[in-house]
Amino acid sequence: MRIAVAGTGYVGLITGICLAEMGHHVVCTDVREEKIQLLKTGRSPIFEPGLEPMLKHNMSNGRLDFTTNPRTAYKNAEIIFIAVGTPENEDGTANLDYIHAAAYTIGVSIENDVIVCTKSTVPVGTNEKIKEIIQSVKPPPLQAIVVSNPEFLREGTGIIDFFNGDRIVIGTESREAASIMEKMYLPLKIPIMKTDTRSAEMIKYASNAFLATKISFINEIAAICEKVGANIEEVAYGIGKDKRIGPHFLQTGIGYGGSCFPKDTKALVQIAGNVKHKFELLESVIKVNYRQQALAVLKAKEILGSLKDKRVALLGLAFKPDTDDVREAASLTIAKALKDEGAMVIAYDPAAIANARKVLGDTIEYTMDIQLAIENTDAAIIATEWDQIKHFPLEIYAEKMKSPIIIDGRNCYSLQDLSSHPITYISIGRPSIK
Ligand code: UGA
After folding, report:
1. Are 2-193 and 196-434 the same fold in CATH?
2. Rounded-to-integer distance, Cα 409 and Cα 315, Å
3. Order of strands, edge to edge, in the sheet holding 365-367?
4. Could you say which residues bind substrate here (predicted)?
5. pLDDT digit string (tens) for 241-251?
6. What is the CB neighbour count within 10 angstroms for residue 3?
7. Is-contact 66 40, C-beta < 8 A?
8. From the CB of residue 322, how many other CB atoms can be counted at a distance below 10 Å?
9. Quick check: pTM over 0.90?
10. Is there a contact between 342 and 363 (Cβ–Cβ < 8 Å)?
């Protein structure tokens, strides 16, 4: 099929490249000239395992192209995906300016009937608005049929998720469009659910809100475990064995971050509020997450007393491993709190230093060497469970730190491993080792 993708951010780029990999002819468009120029040279503007080789492969076989000119991209397209950003407004609502602009550009550019398929996470009713905008500039008989097709890709495993997702949701009132979309996705052999547009839009928010709820729930249980002397790892394993609960998203830690959960949970609270429903459960999920992000520094203060002039290693800046993304990362909250307490911070990350520097500037030091980060420090706080951190030998902490205290915000080490080292080890929801 001939496909166009509007927006070359995380979702748009992975969608476009993977659709080309499936054999479709894809043109991706973006308003940002420098991004398109970079992509045209076969380089990816985002850090995502496996993406660049797939990008190069599909450009060289002629199935994938990039342009800043939307008319070129949309001219012969049978399906146009909208995958532009929906950033958060100050009041927590989703900002739909890019969506509306993309709809308008589609309206003025298309010359044939087309399916317009929204991948971006958008509040209920947005696809109807998209249709309205397109029709206002390109009235019938030309037809633009809208479809809501939310994405469930995780950063760092986006390609795997595209080809092995649990389900594909196709939301539209048009049977014909639904069956075209189904045909396009059929080779992936992923269960396809066809539904109405509004339900599809809601499925995306409800999925992310539910996953965030699981995380805040397990973090609450971890807090109680610490007080009653239980071990959260045992508890999470035990409850996850129940098929009705499931083992996933029960990893306790210093909270969820990233570009999706924080933004989408807040947006869903707003969506509920707009129809006069107070989403109390989700409001608590969000509150618990703020508390969780502050936990590591509280624990550091408990053990060190004042943090003034203390040297603290911050291990991990990305909001999770295998990404360079620091949006809403717990590490940023921790770095700022440590600075407020008067500590000196030296941060390690294998991929996210450049992005963290954009937010934190030179208020902290950075290094790509864990050993350098922990040298002569009073405490080390683990904020991201990178493999490099998980597999870093414990004896080096004991050897290099001024006082070997690890506050492990991601429970990277087993308590058993710690028992043979002279290290004070404080983790989340597990007994401390002192
Ligand atoms: C999330 C969803 O998992 C995807 O299905 C969805 O498509 C995506 O948002 C989106 O809406 O675009 P992502 O934000 O990339 O994906 O990352 P996750 O792997 O879900 O992790 C999010 C945060 O939750 C991370 O900070 C991670 O450390 C934290 N987390 C995750 C936990 O604290 N505990 C867990 O058990 C799992």
Report:
1. yes
2. 10
3. 365-367, 344-348, 311-315, 379-382, 405-408, 424-426
4. 152-155, 204, 249-253, 257, 320
5. 999 999 999 99
6. 24
7. yes
8. 18
9. yes
10. no
Among residues 82, 147, 71, 91, the alpha carbon closest in space to that of 120 is found at 82
Find out whether 17 and 162 touch, Cβ atoms under 8 Å: no
Nearest CA to ligand 1 atom 13: 154
Helix (H) or strand (E) holding 171: strand 168-171
**355: closest CA among 85, 33, 347, 50?**
347
pLDDT tens column, 4-36: 999 999 999 999 999 999 999 999 999 999 999
What are the residue ranges spanned by the domains of the chain?
2-193, 196-434
Task: Give the number of C-alpha atoms closer than 13 A to the C-alpha of residue 76, restricted to the C-beta side.
Answer: 6
The span from the CA of 99 to the CA of 109, in Å, is 15
Class of domain 2-193: alpha beta
Going from the Cα of 67 to the center of ligand 1, the distance in angstroms, rounded, reads 31
User: In the chain, how long is the greatest CA-to-CA distance?
Assistant: 76
Task: Confirm or deny that 86 is annotated as ligand binding.
Answer: yes
Q: Which overall architecture, per CATH, does domain 196-434 show?
A: 3-Layer(aba) Sandwich (3.40)
Is 71 part of any known ligand binding site?
no
DSSP 428: S
Residue 390 burial by Cβ neighbours in a 10 Å radius (0-12, 13-18, 19+): middle
CA distances from 326 to 47, 50, 149, 333 (A): 12, 20, 26, 11
Note the ipTM here. 0.99
Q: Is 338 annotated as a binding residue?
A: no
Return the bridge partners of 218, or none: none
Q: How far apart are CA 426 and CA 364, in angstroms?
A: 23
Please give the distance, rounded to the nearest whole angstrom, from the Cα atom of residue 261 to the centre of ligand 1. 7
Cis peptide leading into 262, omega within 30 of 0?
A: no
Give CA–CA dist 58/202, Å, rounded. Answer: 33
Q: Which of 236, 1, 195 is nearest to 114 (CA)?
A: 1
